[in-house]
Design a protein that fits this description.
By secondary structure, the chain is α/β, with parallel strands linked by helices. Helix content is 41%, strand content 18%.
C-alpha cells in the first residue's frame, strides 16, 4: 500500500486541476471518501483546483458537505480520481467527464466486482470501505479534523457502525485513529446513520408491513413503486436503511428491496447473511458490489424480477423443487 500511496501523492503533485467523483445516488462511503479526499487536498495542496462530482447529498451529511466544491467546474482536468465506483456507468454524468475531459484516471475502490477502468487502479476488496483505503493513502499527521469526520462517516456507513462482516481489526484501528482527531463520533453516527425523518419512517413501515417471505422464509423482499414514492414525495435516499431492516428478520438468508425508478424498471438492492454471494447475482444482471451487499437494475414486472433473482439464490443454496408424488 505504501507504493500506492507514493503513486497517488505523485499524481496529485503533478496535477494542477483535479476532479473527484463518487458514484450516482451516493451513500455514506461515496460521500465520505469524496469529501474526505477533497478536504485533505484543500488542506495540504491549496494551490490545486479541486472539483467534486456528487449528486443529491442528503442533509444527514451536512457536516461534511461543501457546496462550493460540489458546484465548481472546469473544462479540463489533469487528474480524475474515481472513488467507490465499480465501473464507469456508476459514475453517471461524471463518467463522461472522466472519459472525455481528463488526462489521467485513478480508480480507488473496494468492490470485488470493480472493472479496473482506471489508468491506475487501487482496489482492495478486503477493505471495509473506500474511506478505509484512503486513510492508508494519506499521511496521518496531515489529516485534519474535517477530513477525519468525512472518512469516519464513510467507514461507519459501509460497516453498519462496525457490525457487518467486512469490519476487521484494521478497520477498528483506523476508526480509533480518526477518533483521536477529536471528531464528535457519537453525533456523526446518530445524525448520519440512525436518525430518520418522519417520511423515512413511514416508508420503512410500509415496506416492512408489505414485505413477503418466499423460499420457506429464506428470502424476504419488499417493493416500493413509483406511485408510492410520489405519494410520499420521497427521494431514493429516503429508502436508506430499509434493506438492512429486512436483512435482520429471523431465519432470513437474503433480503431484497425493489425500488421502481421507471415503469417496469427496478433498482435492486440485495443483502445476504451467511452463504449466498449476492455480488455474483448482481454482476449477472450488469450490477455489482460486495459478496453480502450488492445491487443492480432490472427490467420487467416485480414478479419477473423476484422470480429471476430467487432462481439464482436457489441455485447457490442447492434448493430443489419437490417432485410430484406418484399416485
Amino acid at each position: 500500500m505504501e507504493d500506492n500511496k507514493n503513486y497517488l501523492i505523485g499524481a496529485i503533485e503533478r496535477a494542477d486541476s483535479i476532479a473527484i467523483s463518487g458514484h450516482v445516488r451516493p451513500d455514506g462511503d461515496a460521500i465520505g471518501s469524496s469529501m474526505g479526499l477533497y478536504y485533505y487536498l484543500a488542506d495540504n495542496y491549496p494551490e490545486k483546483t479541486v472539483c467534486v462530482f456528487l449528486e443529491d447529498v442528503p442533509d444527514s451529511f451536512a457536516h461534511i458537505r461543501d457546496e462550493d466544491a460540489m458546484t465548481r467546474r472546469m473544462d479540463h482536468y489533469d487528474l480524475f480520481i474515481a472513488l467507490d465506483s465499480g465501473d464507469v456507468e456508476r459514475l453517471g454524468d461524471a463518467g463522461k467527464v472522466m472519459q472525455n475531459d481528463s488526462d489521467y484516471i485513478i480508480n480507488i475502490d473496494h468492490h470485488i466486482t470493480n472493472t479496473l477502468f482506471g489508468n491506475k487502479n487501487i482496489v482492495d476488496a478486503k477493505a471495509s470501505s473506500t474511506c478505509q483505503i484512503l486513510f492508508t493513502l494519506m499521511d496521518e499527521e496531515k489529516i485534519s479534523k474535517l477530513t477525519a469526520m468525512a472518512l469516519y462517516t464513510g467507514i461507519i456507513h459501509d460497516t453498519g457502525v462496525f457490525k457487518h462482516s467486512n469490519t476487521s481489526y484494521q478497520t477498528m484501528r483506523i476508526a480509533g485513529k480518526l477518533m483521536r482527531k477529536g471528531i464528535a463520533f457519537g453525533e456523526i453516527i446518530d445524525n448520519s446513520f440512525y436518525n430518520k425523518t418522519y417520511k423515512q419512517l413511514q416508508i420503512m413501515g410500509r415496506c416492512l408491513t408489505e414485505s413477503v417471505r418466499v423460499m420457506d422464509g429464506l428470502v424476504i423482499f419488499a417493493v416500493m413503486r413509483l406511485k408510492d414514492m410520489e405519494f410520499y414525495g420521497a427521494k431514493p435516499s429516503d429508502l436508506d436503511g430499509v434493506i438492512d431492516e429486512l436483512r435482520t428478520t429471523e431465519g432470513v438468508e437474503v433480503a431484497i428491496l425493489l425500488s421502481e425508478r421507471a415503469p417496469d424498471e427496478f433498482k435492486v438492492s440485495m443483502r445476504s447473511n451467511q452463504v449466498v454471494d449476492v455480488a455474483s447475482i448482481a454482476k449477472y444482471y450488469g450490477g455489482g458490489g460486495h459478496i453480502k451487499a450488492s445491487g443492480c437494475t432490472m427490467q420487467g414486472s416485480s414478479y419477473d424480477v423476484i422470480n429471476a433473482l430467487t432462481a439464482h439464490i436457489e441455485n447457490q443454496l442447492g434448493v430443489q423443487e419437490p417432485e410430484d408424488e406418484e399416485e
